[in-house]
Design goal:
The complex is a heterodimer of chains A (264) and B (262). Chain A is an all-alpha fold. Chain A has one domain. Chain A has a two-stranded antiparallel ribbon. In chain A, a hairpin with a 2-residue loop joins β1 and β2. The longest helix of chain A is centred in the last third of the chain and has 32 residues. Chain A is globular. In chain A, 41% of the residues are buried. With 262 residues, chain B is mainly alpha-helical. Chain B has one domain. Helix content of chain B is 77%, strand content 2%. Chain B contains twelve helices and two strands. Chain B has a two-stranded antiparallel ribbon. The chains are: A mainly alpha (264), B mainly alpha (262). The interface between A and B is medium-sized, with 37 and 33 residues.
Chain lengths: 264, 262
């Protein structure tokens, strides 16, 4: 397995180095939205004397600075790629290889996120300085938060794949992906930290998987919750991850059975 | 002029027929537009759950702004984006020759040839949101502010058109410029809020490099009578300058075109 992964790594690096500029371009999408909503929340906080519930101006800034990283490291784009592969027939030869297509995607994800982080760090620093972010992060926040970030990335990766697999039946998945992403827009902690969502929305958010992808790791890493709450939230992540794994396996095997190449 | 309008009608008709071939897909796209704008309104409502006024913007004003944002984005995706995308493909493949040979203005042909007709729905949704916001406004709509709104909105369209034309024209020299256009997509999202809430560097980018800020914020201010004559004059002058520059730039670029492999 290690040998296979080493081969995949070299292969992906070669592919990526062909499109160096493009590679960094998509980084923009990781930080524009967090900055937009940070600016909006600060305007709201200012109208209330600088404090919103448990959040001060600099707490909001810290949350969204971390959110830039979390968005970047958890983002998933496999649904678009998979749809393309099915439509163009590129999936069929991949299926004949003795390696599950998921592995290609894992390597591509790790590499892209790793390399492009170089561009994200300076932006995050600038934003942190501009908006005077203040982190209340302890050492254990970093330790647990890193695990939580991994869980969030895995969660988003697998759910992204489940939606990608819908293409087995429908060929096009754009409409479903939009629904999925807009639910995430509201409930994942992008438009507001989960703690600032008004009453019923907050309850719904903690019941859905989206918040566990972005909002939870971001809040732990900025040093928001206490230890008990953090562990509880991470428990939620583990539960949803288990659900995602089961779901992915079920949909994959069902989809594969009824898949026939486009035009066949 | 009449000939161009007739041509425009023809283009729209053929694109509409094309879109109607895939009716289920069309339905899904309409659903996406409704979901996206609906969730955006929800996001604004969540922000306003904590305040009455945000940086001087009341909720109805912000709703108007969001409506204008979707109108601007809708028009841009209705015609500019599909047309310029196709134009860049033409340059890459050398098929622009056939466009240039046609006995009409080549700038017209590359700018208004292709339509994503479903985006009319997005423009309509934007209009509905705008009108809803206007109905909630505390101030009464005057003829003057309505006229200023229409005028600045039109300026916004021209500004964005001029920017996209300039960016696309770069294809004559660099061939692959879709990346530069992607920059534009990333920044346009910031137009959903008034530019005055952003820190200096982003505000500057959005009012000069990517004039989305002007195209969205100024009309939304105009409709509540917050735009003075001086600003109006400035926007008009900037629009005229952008139009003239983009046109000259296009002509200059056209001279650099040699056809693929020529």
């Amino acid at each position: 397995m290690i040998r296979i992964y080493r081969a995949l790594l070299t292969n992906q690096i070669q592919i990526m180095s062909q499109y160096r500029a493009q590679m960094f371009l998509y980084v923009l999408f990781s930080f524009i939205r967090p900055i937009i909503f940070l600016a909006a929340w600060l305007a709201v906080a200012d109208s209330q004397g600088g404090q919103l519930g448990a959040f001060s101006r600099s707490d909001l800034a810290a949350y969204y600075v971390v959110m830039i990283f979390v968005t970047h490291l958890t983002t998933s784009w496999d649904m678009y790629e998979f749809e393309y592969e099915i439509r163009q027939g590129a999936l069929s030869p991949k299926l004949l290889r003795p390696l599950h297509p998921l592995h290609y995607s894992i390597v591509a994800n790790v590499l892209w996120k790793g390399f492009t982080s170089v561009a994200v760090i300076p932006v995050a620093v600038i934003v942190a300085i501009t908006f005077e972010a203040r982190f209340t992060t302890d050492a254990w926040h970093v330790a647990l938060g890193s695990v939580s970030l991994l869980l969030g990335a895995a969660l988003q990766f697998l759910f992204g794949w489940v939606f990608a697999l819908v293409a087995f039946w429908t060929t096009r998945v754009h409409a479903f992906v939009t629904l999925y992403q807009r639910a995430g827009f509201i409930f994942a902690g992008q438009i507001a930290p989960l703690a600032l969502l008004p009453g019923p929305l907050q309850a719904i958010a903690y019941g859905l998987p989206f918040g566990y992808m972005l909002g939870v790791p971001a809040d732990i890493l900025r040093g928001g919750p206490d230890l008990a709450t953090a562990l509880l939230l991470m428990g939620g992540q583990v539960v949803w991850l288990a659900v995602a794994v089961v779901l992915y396996r079920a949909v994959w095997s069902a989809g594969l059975r009824q898949y026939s190449a486009v035009g066949a | 002029m009449g000939r161009y309008l007739r041509l425009l009608g023809l283009f729209v008709r053929t694109e509409l027929q094309f879109a109607l071939e895939y009716r289920f897909n069309l339905l899904l796209e309409i659903m996406q537009i409704v979901v996206v704008s609906g969730t955006s309104v929800a996001a604004v409502l969540i922000l306003y759950a904590y305040t009455e006024v945000m940086n001087g913007w009341s909720l109805p004003q912000m709703v108007v702004l969001l409506g204008v944002f979707y109108m601007v984005q809708g028009v841009e995706e209705l015609v500019f984006q599909p047309s310029f995308q196709r134009f860049m493909e033409h340059v890459r493949q050398g098929t622009l020759d056939f466009v240039l040979l046609k006995p009409v203005s080549s700038q017209f042909m590359v700018s208004f040839r292709h339509f994503q007709t479903v985006q009319t729905i997005q423009v309509a949704v934007g209009l509905v949101i705008t009108l809803y916001g206007v109905a909630q406004l505390a101030t009464v709509l005057t003829v003057g502010s309505a006229a200023a709104f229409a005028l600045t909105l039109a300026c916004g369209f021209v500004l964005i058109y001029a920017l996209l034309l300039v960016l696309s024209t770069l294809a004559f020299w660099f061939v692959r410029v879709d990346n530069i256009l992607a920059l534009f997509w990333a920044f346009i999202d910031a137009g959903r809020f008034p530019i005055d809430i952003y820190p200096g560097w982003l505000r500057l980018t959005m009012s000069t490099v990517v004039p989305v800020g002007i195209a969205v914020t100024v009309p939304a201010k105009a409709i509540v009578g917050l735009v003075d004559l001086q600003t109006l004059g400035f926007v008009l002058a900037a629009t005229a300058a952008a139009w003239l520059f983009s046109r000259a730039f296009w002509k200059r670029g056209l001279r650099a075109y040699t056809g693929a492999s020529a």
